[in-house]
Amino acid sequence: MNISVIGGGVIGVSCALYLARAGVKVRLFTGKELGSGASGRSLSWLNASGPWPADYYNLRMAGIDRFRSLYCKNTHVDWLKFNGGVFLSDQDEVRKWYSIEKERGYDSHLFQPEDVNSIDAKINPAAIGPYGIYNAGEGWVSLPELIECLVSEFLTLNGTVIENAGKTVPIFDAEGATKGVVSQKQGEYLCDKVLLACGASTSKLVAELGVDLPDGSVLSMVAITEPFDNRPSVVLNTPKVAMRPNPGNSLVIDHSWYVNEIKEDENGVCSVPEHIVEQLLSEADRLLKSDVPITLAGYKAGWKPVPADGFPVLGELQEMPGCYVAFTHSGATLSLIVGELVSWEMTTGKSHPMLASFRPGRFKS
């Protein structure tokens, strides 16, 4: 079997690797460099916390499981850690999340301000409300390094990576079945099946092929700090700021409250008002016990892939036999399990029950 994957983010790379592990000949096409889209600017918090529907919760838990397996083989790396996560919000929401998590058997612990430094000594107790939640089994991953790790194995399995290919799209035979891809820089390449894993561009691409895949993608921004000695080891998710450790002793910081203030120019370059970045860093400073303020190394902004209903879109497009799609928010948590299950479907021709709720056809009226 010969398969083309379009998309060089973590979802596309993971799918390509799992296909190669199955003995398939795989070519991975990416319009620019690997990881140059949303995967290069992700908080990438590995979690299944909160009031998710059961099928999505189960998929996220499977995703975390695959990362724990990867971590067991790579405990020495600085880009994948399982030091837990802290969730802060108003008292009612904290109690709601805690109740749901305990009912599911999630490793969830309610704590008060005076307890927080037993979880992480770098957190400021004065910034904690009446209660917070500590999820001991959560972690984080830096996706650029993960992509490098996955691509390294992919190449040893004789996979082919074609970077800077320009726009790449599937092509079809007279009966409407997938027969290959064509790219701006590489021309036509024939294959048996194609996977579209193009992040926030996925809906636009399939629309050009005549398929409606509703899109809820939003502009987003993450800030990266200078090296910071007093950084926490846990992931923090709060009403005004989310943060995690990052390789190089820095922090990655983001949130969603400022998305409407991010601007994109005619060349696709995004900018964020200076006061937004300053406020985000100020919120981060407030959470930490440190007399030294966090300083900015830079920020990255662009489109965050989000299907219209917020849930993954995974599987074969009914309108185009042999053409599959993998379009999802939470690309970090889901990247390895999506790669495993979508590649299994592509190579076996079977449908995996864990993906039943996430088919592209659910948007049809």
From TrEMBL:
The keyword Acetylation does not apply. It comes from the Bacteria. One of its GO terms (molecular function) is oxidoreductase activity. Pfam families: DAO. Residues 3-342 form the FAD dependent oxidoreductase domain. Keywords: Oxidoreductase. InterPro entries: FAD-dep_OxRdtase (IPR006076), FAD/NAD-bd_sf (IPR036188). GO terms for cellular component: cytoplasm. The keyword Oxidoreductase applies. This is FAD dependent oxidoreductase domain-containing protein.
